[in-house]
């Protein structure tokens, strides 16, 4: 049975979501604050997380940030914060979808189903993301063909984003937006030189006999080609 994690501090809404999702055949775990959310997230490895942002203690923004450091599990933000800036911030911070309260039950279910269809099994820190690649978020490094590569924060986020979209082109604009939070044209050279540094580190670690997994797609952006 597909397990979902609902992170919501309103007990009435939390129970309603459990009933609604349970009727669709999902197994639902509930967390009422950010710390409990992270504990359940890494203990249970759910297939999807529904995340409120206004939580006591550790808020939803912090939960989302820590989640994205450790996993690519799909995250649907469900929040009363409906301003455009909040929705943009949520998506830039790593949410896969954003739904504003109050919401229609049918729309919530449709969005959950769409995210689950599009996503594969979630990948987690400590597990290989490719046969020869493992991301180590606590050290901001990568294990590539058995050797550890120390990365800058930018290089780590760049590699993480490319790997999350393995096999698909990530445009220069998307990289600027999600890695640098900068969509200006003047920033395009940042991407070019950061990718060059990252590729050099990968080649230096594994040697010339190993194929470089990052491919430049002329006029578009970059793609991580799976080794599998």
From TrEMBL:
<dbReference type="InterPro" id="IPR011006">
    <property type="entry name" value="CheY-like_superfamily"/>
</dbReference>
<keyword id="KW-0902">Two-component regulatory system</keyword>
<feature type="DNA-binding region" description="OmpR/PhoB-type">
    <location>
        <begin position="125"/>
        <end position="226"/>
    </location>
</feature>
<keyword id="KW-0597">Phosphoprotein</keyword>
<dbReference type="Pfam" id="PF00486">
    <property type="entry name" value="Trans_reg_C"/>
</dbReference>
<keyword id="KW-0804">Transcription</keyword>
<feature type="modified residue" description="4-aspartylphosphate">
    <location>
        <position position="52"/>
    </location>
</feature>
<dbReference type="InterPro" id="IPR001789">
    <property type="entry name" value="Sig_transdc_resp-reg_receiver"/>
</dbReference>
<feature type="domain" description="OmpR/PhoB-type">
    <location>
        <begin position="125"/>
        <end position="226"/>
    </location>
</feature>
<protein>
    <submittedName>
        <fullName>Transcriptional regulator</fullName>
    </submittedName>
</protein>
<dbReference type="GO" id="GO:0000976">
    <property type="term" value="F:transcription cis-regulatory region binding"/>
</dbReference>
<dbReference type="InterPro" id="IPR036388">
    <property type="entry name" value="WH-like_DNA-bd_sf"/>
</dbReference>
<dbReference type="GO" id="GO:0006355">
    <property type="term" value="P:regulation of DNA-templated transcription"/>
</dbReference>
<keyword id="KW-0238">DNA-binding</keyword>
<dbReference type="GO" id="GO:0005829">
    <property type="term" value="C:cytosol"/>
</dbReference>
<feature type="domain" description="Response regulatory">
    <location>
        <begin position="3"/>
        <end position="116"/>
    </location>
</feature>
<dbReference type="Pfam" id="PF00072">
    <property type="entry name" value="Response_reg"/>
</dbReference>
<dbReference type="GO" id="GO:0032993">
    <property type="term" value="C:protein-DNA complex"/>
</dbReference>
<keyword id="KW-0805">Transcription regulation</keyword>
<dbReference type="InterPro" id="IPR039420">
    <property type="entry name" value="WalR-like"/>
</dbReference>
<dbReference type="InterPro" id="IPR001867">
    <property type="entry name" value="OmpR/PhoB-type_DNA-bd"/>
</dbReference>
<dbReference type="GO" id="GO:0000156">
    <property type="term" value="F:phosphorelay response regulator activity"/>
</dbReference>
